[in-house]
Design goal:
- The N and C termini lie far apart (43 Å).
- The chain has a domain at 1-80 and 88-109.
- The protein has 280 residues and is of the alpha+beta class.
- Strands 1-2-3-4-5-7-6 form a seven-stranded mixed beta sheet.
- The chain has nine helices and seven strands, in the order H-H-H-E-E-E-E-H-H-E-H-E-H-H-H-E.
- Strand 1 and strand 2 form a beta hairpin.
C-alpha cells in the first residue's frame, strides 16, 4: 500500500498489483517500458527531445534502453543523446532485496557536452573500477581542478534532485518503505544525507572523519601538501575532503558504508555541519 500523498499502488494493465522489480520484469516489453518510464525526470526527457510517451526522439531514434531481464529482480536504464553515443547521459541501476527494499545501486548523470576526464581508467587505459584497480593521476588532477569529485568523468546536470522524488514515489507504489544504497565515496554519502538518508553502517566513521579533519585531528595534520590531493584547506569542503580520502589519507580504504532512506521521512543527518560550499 502506498503511503505518500496522491500516490497509489502500482498495477499492471489488468489491474493486478505489482510489488517488485521481478514482477514488473514479467510484463510484456511495451508495458514494462511504460512502467519504468516513470523514473525519467521531465527535464531529462526534454534534453533528449523524447516524443511524448516514447523512448524515441522525433526522428524515431531510440535513446533510452531498459534492461530488465525476465526472472531477475533488477533493472538498468541507460539514456544517450544519440543511439551510438558511448557516453550515457543517464545511467540507473536498481534491484530489490529479499527484505522487500529498493536498492539504489548506481545513478550516474552526466552532461555529455562538458569536457571528459579519464579518471575511470588507469594510465594504460584499462577500466580501473572506480580507482580500485589503479589510478590516472594526471586526469584526476584535471578533474579536481575543474571542480569535479572523485570518479566523476563529466560535470553533472543537476538532475538528481528531480530524479530522487520519482524514485521515492516508484518505491512507494510497489509497497516498499525503504531505499538502501552503498555510497562509493565520501561526497556521495554527504549528498545522500541531503536527501534524507541515514546510516545502516558507517555513521560512526562519518563522524570520526569530521572530527579528524578539524584542527589538530590526524587527517587535518596529514593535509601537509605532500600531494596535490592533500593541500591545507581541503578540510573545509566536501570536495576537498573527498579527494584527500580518495588519495588514501585515512588509515583504511573507504569501504563498507551503507545507507537507507525511509519513504516520506527525512532523517535529518548532517555529519559535516561546518562545511563550506564548493566554489566553481
Amino acid at each position: 500500500m502506498a503511503i505518500l500523498p496522491d500516490n497509489s499502488q502500482l498495477c499492471d494493465v489488468s489491474g493486478r498489483p505489482l510489488s517488485s522489480l521481478q514482477a514488473i520484469n514479467r510484463l510484456g516489453e511495451a508495458e514494462k517500458e511504460a512502467v519504468y518510464s516513470a523514473l525519467l525526470p521531465l527535464r531529462l526527457r526534454r534534453i533528449l527531445g523524447l516524443a511524448e510517451g516514447s523512448f524515441c526522439n522525433r526522428a524515431g531514434e531510440k535513446l533510452v534502453t531498459v534492461i530488465a531481464p525476465l526472472g531477475l529482480p533488477l533493472v538498468r536504464i541507460e539514456a544517450r543523446m544519440r543511439p551510438d553515443d558511448p557516453v550515457t547521459l543517464f545511467f540507473l541501476e536498481l534491484s530489490d532485496t529479499q527484505f522487500h527494499q529498493m536498492e539504489l545501486s548506481f545513478c550516474i548523470i552526466r552532461d555529455p557536452a562538458s569536457p571528459s576526464y579519464a579518471v575511470d581508467v588507469d594510465e594504460s587505459g584499462r577500466n580501473n573500477w572506480f580507482a580500485s584497480h589503479g589510478r590516472h593521476i594526471a586526469e584526476e588532477l584535471r578533474a579536481m581542478n575543474a571542480g569535479l569529485f572523485p570518479n566523476q568523468t563529466h560535470h553533472g546536470l543537476q538532475l538528481f534532485a528531480e530524479f530522487f522524488p520519482l524514485l521515492e514515489r516508484f518505491t512507494d507504489s510497489l509497497g516498499m518503505q525503504m531505499i538502501i544504497g552503498e555510497p562509493l565515496s565520501y561526497d556521495n554519502a554527504i549528498r545522500y544525507e541531503k536527501y534524507g538518508f541515514d546510516y545502516l553502517r558507517g555513521k560512526r566513521l562519518m563522524r570520526e572523519i569530521d572530527r579528524e579533519f578539524q584542527p589538530g585531528g590526524k587527517y587535518f595534520q596529514r593535509l601537509d601538501g605532500s600531494s596535490p590531493f592533500r593541500m591545507p584547506g581541503m578540510e573545509r569542503t566536501v570536495c576537498g575532503r573527498s579527494w584527500a580520502i580518495h588519495d588514501g589519507i585515512m588509515d583504511e580504504p573507504w569501504d563498507e558504508v551503507h545507507i537507507y532512506h525511509m519513504v516520506g521521512v527525512n532523517a535529518g543527518i548532517n555529519t559535516f555541519p561546518g562545511r563550506e560550499e564548493q566554489q566553481r
